């Protein structure tokens, strides 16, 4: 077990605090409060068997030749990340986006890169 502050956990996992809190709400990551009432996150709890299905949704197995354009809400659900994480991935070039006829963002799930 490795209990880290929210900031350090987010840095190590490469996610936003909102995503970390979302994972906590979903029961994917365990927390404790220290004597100063600071929340600590057990990042090793993400590797549990029960989380493997949820983490497998990150599209490692998707066909990279076939774009899968989905809405923001669907991308958040399928990737298990928060809106801010998707936006930072977009800014970093880790996921492709385009706009639909209503000027809403669409995300290509098959374009997600981890580098």
Chain-averaged pLDDT: 83
Question: Unreliable stretches, pLDDT < 50, 5 or more residues?
Answer: 60-64
- Cα(first) to Cα(last) distance is 26 Å
Strand content: 15-25%
Structural class designation: alpha+beta
Proper CATH architecture of the largest domain: Orthogonal Bundle
Spatial order of strands in the largest sheet: 1-3-2
Radius of gyration: 15 Å
CATH class of the largest domain: Mainly Alpha
Total number of helices = 5
Give the oligomeric state of the chains in this entry, treating copies of one chain as homo and distinct chains as hetero. single chain
Count of the separate structural domains:
2
> What order do the helices and strands follow?
EHHEEHEHHEE
Give the % helix. Answer: 25-40%
Determine the CATH topology of the largest domain: Multidrug-efflux Transporter Regulator, Chain: A, Domain 2
In total, the number of strands is: 6
Molecular shape? elongated
* Main sheet attributes: strand count, strand direction, barrel closure: 3 strands, antiparallel
Tell me about this structure:
The chain has 115 residues and is of the alpha+beta class. The chain has two domains: 53 residues, Multidrug-efflux Transporter Regulator, Chain: A, Domain 2 (Orthogonal Bundle); 55 residues, Multidrug-efflux Transporter Regulator, Chain: A, Domain 2 (Orthogonal Bundle). Helices cover 37% and strands 18% of the residues. The protein has five helices and six strands. The strands form two sheets. It has a three-stranded antiparallel sheet with strand order 1-3-2. A three-stranded antiparallel sheet has the order 4-6-5. Strand 2 and strand 3 form a beta hairpin. The radius of gyration is 15 Å and the shape is elongated. It starts with a strand and ends in a 7-residue tail after the last strand. 15% of the residues are buried.
């Amino acid at each position: 077990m490795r209990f880290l502050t929210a900031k350090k956990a987010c840095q190590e996992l490469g996610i936003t605090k909102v995503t970390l809190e979302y994972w906590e709400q979903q029961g994917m990551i365990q927390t404790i409060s220290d004597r100063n009432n600071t929340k600590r996150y057990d990042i090793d709890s993400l590797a549990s068997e029960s989380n493997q299905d949820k983490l497998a949704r990150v599209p490692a197995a998707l066909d990279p030749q076939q774009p899968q354009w989905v809405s923001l809400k669907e991308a958040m659900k399928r990737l298990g990340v928060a809106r801010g994480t998707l936006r930072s991935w977009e800014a970093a070039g880790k996921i492709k986006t385009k706009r639909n006829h209503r000027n809403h963002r669409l995300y290509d799930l098959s374009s997600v890169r981890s580098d």
